Predict the structure of Alpha/beta hydrolase-fold protein.
Amino acid sequence: MAYIDCKLKSQILQTTVTVKLYFPTDLPAEVGNQIKGCLTLLHGYTNCAEDWFQMTSAARYAADNGLMLIVPDCGNSFYQNMMYGGAYRTFLVDEMPVLLHNIFRFIPMQRDRNFIAGLSMGGYGALYLGMSRPDIWGGCASFSGAVDLSLMLRDPNVPGLREVFAPIFGDSLALPKASNLHYVAQKAAELPPQRQPKILLTNGLQDFEPYHIVEQNDSLHATLHKLNLAYYRRIQWDGVHEWNFWDRSLVYAIDYFLGNGYAAKKMNDWRSSAVIHQ
């Protein structure tokens, strides 16, 4: 396996950006020697790319399935072109792939082998990017995502509301139409089925305050269900806003993207009984 810690000089952001890469170069024999796809993972608010490797088994799950990982640091941007900050959407969509190709001769995967997922803020980012650019990503997944920002923006009791969102959307805290996932989903639903992305939502049933994660996911689910998208799935189970939940969500996402029964295999692994000898 190969872990590469990149420091990319971004002209768009006018700063150096950390992007972590994982290449499963010693793939299991049953997987084969060819990389089968690419998964971009987006971190949550106040988090960073390193958290995906320290707090989950992302690399092991990727190796099991022949996936390379791209994990960028994007600050507290909500993956937007910020009003008072960096153009992170443009960096991720346009600049980062070019920089990676120039350095590693890395050729981006075709959309049906290119996926994006994230947790919390990154869950929003994964759907925002994946649904608006299904020509790039064939699947997108949100784990405990802040997927209906309008619910947060109109609640003055959300901690740090202005500090979080004023740099992103401006002092009015007005959510642009193009950043509203209900609108983005509607545009995706207008595409022919073969051009629509796979979409996955997961959230814990006890993930409420202070960010209304259950309520946000219920709201977006109602829209996605009504739009009758070609490839949409929602999975819920007991859980809150924490890494055990996101680790398991990653297994479900890989299984959904690849359609290879990986989730059932991992569930059997986790349920395997152990004999303890005293």
Q: What stands out?
A: The longest strand covers residues 2-10. The chain has one domain: 2-263. The first helix runs from residue 50 to 55. The chain has a mean pLDDT of 94.
